[in-house]
Specification:
Layout (H helix, E strand, L loop, with lengths): L2 H19 L6 H13 L6 H7 L11 H10 L5 H17 L9 H11 L3 H9 L6 H17 L3 H9 L2 H8 L11 H13 L3 H17 L24 H14 L6 H15 L5 H17 L3 H4 L3 H13 L7 H12 L22 H13 L4 H17 L5 H5 L1
Length: about 400
């Protein structure tokens, strides 16, 4: 096998591995998690070896064949040579049959080339042929697209091309949801492109909530004229997506925080949330509770709210349902809240863990929440460093609500 060809197949092996485990390998911590996953199926590869394989650490030689064989076997191919053979067949199929491009790795290769060539028509053709075959495969595409948009020099042209196709709207605008939003590019794109096509009430509500909650958490003024849908009493609650529900309650708490009767209003909102929770699955409940926690923490009313037994119990029960698996920013918020108020709960808690997936769209929130969680048990030099940086970082990145949880 020629060296250049081998490198090509190794890159495809990396992509296939990330598809299977459901997250990208971007830091050494990810290698540790992957090493543990491998050990669970009796495959022993150290985190350092994985870091060299994924290019996170300097490697003085090509990956050992034994390592490549083990990784290929983890994917069900038996050996690296067999993996290369099967990928060759897949690519031949993809080149000869347009529909094959929708599921073959070649679609990622061609998509990436079209994006970097500013060939927007070809990008649209390839992306529109993409078919979701699994949650992990969708997540890979979502993060791939989101990172590509963030890094692109012609971001505005890219955003316009994405809004023109269904997969562009669904996989980027509605799934990546860039909470970090560097330079406000995402919020601007929602107003400039997304709302001209998506006119249903849920999409408009999402836009109002996203743009205005970001302003509030950055201590910026919000105009009442920009809150028409959020303040509407005729919203079809039963027709809203759980993310829209979570953002709606978050925003209503944030808006009413200056009302003289806020304590009574807060109790009313918590009661409505508790009434809605039974209809949702665990990961959905996690998001609804997490956004309410954020808003209450920002208004400095979380401590009082945690004294409402039904509310604290709902948070604790949802945390238990996670079974120690922290996979989203919402799960991280629940874990932090439970540990801050751990003296309220008599049962043992799951061990503290960092997030198991890399969320490129919420890097700032992840860093802030994990740092706040570490702060609870930090000592000496580490505590001093966290004490110095946590609050300024949280305020600068729109995560100032963190202070309302840990203080």
């Amino acid at each position: 096998m020629l060296q250049g060809t081998e490198s090509y197949y190794i890159e495809h092996l990396k992509r296939k591995l990330e598809e299977k485990i459901g997250f990208q390998i971007l830091q050494f911590h990810d290698c540790r998690i992957f090493s543990e996953l491998l050990s669970n199926v009796k495959i022993t590869i150290s985190a350092h070896t994985l870091a060299r394989f994924f290019g996170l650490m300097k490697a003085n030689h090509r990956p050992y064949t034994s390592t490549l064989n083990l990784l290929a076997d983890y994917l069900g191919f038996g050996s690296f040579a067999f993996f290369c053979n099967e990928i060759s067949k897949l690519h031949a199929f993809s080149l000869s049959d347009r529909q094959g491009m929708s599921t073959g790795d070649f679609s990622f290769t061609a998509l990436e080339l079209a994006i970097h060539s500013n060939d927007w028509k070809s990008m649209q053709t390839i992306l529109e042929s993409f078919e979701v075959t699994s949650k992990a495969y969708k997540n890979y595409m979502v993060m791939f697209l989101g990172n590509a948009v963030r890094q692109h020099a012609e971001k505005d042209d890219f955003l316009k091309a994405l809004i023109e196709i269904e997969n562009g709207r669904h996989l980027f605008y509605e799934s990546f949801v860039d909470e970090d939003d560097p330079g406000n590019y995402y919020a601007d794109a929602l107003n400039k492109y997304y709302l001209k096509i998506k006119q249903e009430i849920g999409s408009k509500l999402f836009n109002e909530c996203f743009v205005n909650s970001k302003k509030i958490y950055l201590n910026q003024n919000v105009a009442l004229k920009d809150l028409n849908i959020i303040l509407s009493e005729s919203l079809p609650i039963d027709e809203l997506h759980f993310h829209q529900i979570s953002r709606l309650f978050e925003m209503r708490i944030l808006i009413d925080r200056t009302d003289d009767n806020f304590i009574q209003i807060m109790d009313k909102y918590i009661g409505k949330v508790l009434d809605l929770l039974p209809r949702y699955e665990t990961y959905q409940k996690s998001w609804i509770l997490a956004r309410v926690i954020k808003a209450l923490a920002f208004t400095e009313k979380l401590k009082k709210s945690m004294k409402i037994q039904e509310f604290s119990t709902a948070i604790y029960q949802t945390y238990l349902e996670l079974n120690g698996e922290i996979e989203s920013i919402a799960d991280l918020i629940l874990q932090l809240t439970i540990y801050v108020y751990r003296n309220q709960f008599q049962a043992d808690l799951f061990p503290l863990v960092r997030i198991q997936k890399t969320h490129l769209n919420e890097t700032n929130a992840r860093i802030a929440i994990e740092s706040a969680t570490a702060y609870l048990f930090a000592e000496k030099q580490v505590k001093a460093i966290l004490d110095k940086n946590l609050i300024p970082f949280s305020q600068k990145t729109g995560n100032s609500w963190i202070k309302g949880i840990i203080t």
